Amino acid sequence: xxxxxxxxxxxRFMEERGHAIIPSAALVPENDPTTxxxxxxxxxxxxxxxxxxxxxxxxxxxxxxxFRANDIEEVGDNRHTTFFEMLGNWSLGDYFKKxxxxxxxxxxxxxxxxxxxxxxxxxxxGDESLGIPRDDESVTIxxxxxKERGIEAKAVHIGSEEDGYEVGMQAGRIxxxxxxxxxxxxxxxxxxxxxxxxxxxxxxxxxxxxPEHATHPEFKDKAAHPNSDSGQFLExxxxxxxxxxxxxxxxxxxxxQSNVDFGGGLERxxxxxxxxxxxxxxxxxxxxVKEMEQLSGRKYEDDTMxxxxxxxxxxxxxxxxxxxxxxxxxxxGYFVRRLLRRAVRYADRxxxxxGQLASLAKSVIHSYETHYLNIKDQKDTIxxxxxxxxxxxRKTLEKxxxxxxxxxxxxxxxxxxxxxxxxxxxxxxxxVEELAKDKGLTIDKDSFDQKMKGHQALSRAGAEQKxxxxxxxxxxxxxxxxxxxxxxxxxxxxFLGNGIHQAGSNITGERLRFDFTHTDKVERDVLDKVEEFxxxxxxxGGPVRIDMMPKTTAENDPTIEGSFWDRYPDEVKVYTITGNxxxxxxxxxxxxxxxxxxxxxxxxxxxxxxxxxxxGVRRVKAVLE
Length: 625
Description:
The protein is α+β, with helices and mostly antiparallel strands.
């Protein structure tokens, strides 16, 4: 069964049970300051899990494309990938545990064809200190489901992951774990949650590939248990039951509306279906592997790590570029560049001829184009961006080799030298070490590691201080600036023409920064007119109205301005700002928060700077004084 078939089966299965099928959100979240990428299926649904009503109703399902930058260095084993798809379904105050657990189990066994005897589940063990009971309700439901398949499901207590190595399986089928394993909130464990945060117990499903797959050396002498990294078990789905809210005094009370948040890894379910824990053997990835074998003349088994890195990184870069993120040196673009440059290095390692990364991307597009139409539509753009990045990096590598030859002339390579080659020329330590070995030299790896730790700490600190183009938070002043930005765009379009469109934004409580499509410098007299337009609108005052409508309707309405249409679902919010005098100041597609009326914007709007941002894009900065 192909990955595409499993995805389609899942969506139809949930649709038959009353779920509205919603499209995947983009890999770059809109107006979310907390993260650079969409890293889970539930991330785009957080507002609705927090209580906002969804235009499609209370039962939703999708297949969400996700990217986790933290997993780049983990890629190389048989289960880690940076890009992945998360099958998801949600109940917003509708059904709960009984329906959710039965549906997922039925889907796995009857639709995908998994052997129920190889399925193991985990539940929350409870926390007496916080007054949260253990999840016996889910245990009862699971026992009934297994019994219907002729399987006795013994429930046993594990506790922590480390405890599991001591007590082992205990002939169990259902396992109680503590909050570190079987509790979900955005802040992690219950004790880490701030007042007002929602969360709840979860129930994870694992597939047992057999003890012969417990290959990780660290686990050879440890007792087996499902929620470990031994290699024998693979988590394929997790049902979260969001039913608690934390109070100011640290206690937990039940929410008036209990929600279900389910996520299941498409590639992992497909791996279970073919009976092999190596997710790279799933057809969606294996097609790229086969192309690599043909180009290199080598087999996957010859260097599994290199094959996996290239396959994963090309897929991730393809989807990222398809969502409008191009290789660069900062923010999301940095990770696309990093993926492609690592792919070049590992492609060279297995003998793939230079200039072939774009060919591998064609395989990715071919595998996914029937479901993700944007990568089919953006095919030429994707292939061109990948080819150009490979060409540019190979030139950098050539310069790096010249620098390497200079460094080895002194008869030794220090940790500082290796660090220079890494940071300036993109040489990984392994490549420097290999080149040094060929010259009969060794490297002070401890010194290099110390340099790297400092570099990574600075990178993390910098990343924490940055946020994706959008809103820094949803504070009152940021919301005022956000609405003023819409007025400013309307002013720019009024005085410069309708060819002006948003190209990016970055809004804090102190100022706004806005990028827009325009080739020439905007003269001060035009900026003054834009300022006057915005300030007049604020002075006149008037309501900010929100309308929900199909995206196709909004796209075909010439009175509605919008950018980044691919990032929005099939039902969109359109904000109309109308003055008390009846004039429509702005009508624009947007997913973020706005003031309820223009009178809520405090201060005088002032454009402080206008400059070039990039080719064909200008940037303005403005304040509310």
